[in-house]
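Appendix C. Worked example: Phospholipase/carboxylesterase
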Amino acid sequence: MSGAADFVHLVEPARRPQAPTLLLLHGTGADEHDLLPLGRVLAPGAALLSPRGKVDENGMNRWFRRLREGVFDVDDVVARAAELAEWLPAALEHHGLDAPVVAAGFSNGANIAAALMFLHPGLLDGAVLLGAGYPLQGRGPGGADLSGTAAFLGAGAADPVSTPDQARLLADHLAGRGARVEFLEHPGGHGVPPRVVEGARAWFDGRYGSP
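Step 2, the predicted output written as structure tokens:
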């Protein structure tokens, strides 16, 4: 695919002109099928591009390695984000999909989406980050100019995997680089309750228009 390392992926073509392309990034142990229903709810009629993470952790698909629960291999985060960033424009061209591109990710997928925003500014126009934390642990966000981009964060107050502190740190770093951030905290754990889906859909409609 134009020289870019390929990812196993699924595509649903757009049924609504002018809609952005939604890049769906699954969580640990899931695959390219997992977030298709969420994508259809967030952006009815938009093109969906849903790849599968290449890292195998004891039979579970992931986007990057971790050293243990909650501790990321940050060098691998950087390398895997670069690989995904190389693939995405080639995939868009190959499938005839249009920019802008908005990522929607859960957990590990939301973390790699956030890494794309910091490390490859301009690749994504925005992101829906659910159950996410700051992916560049121990490192600053760099000098990325994220003005003009936007992010919706859904975080659980009782989330033991992506803690509220990590979610707020991610929101602060995004806002500090110029992104417009909407943060919605729910009382649950590591999941995506209906309230968060509704909030993300409203955010998407407000930024990109409803069908």
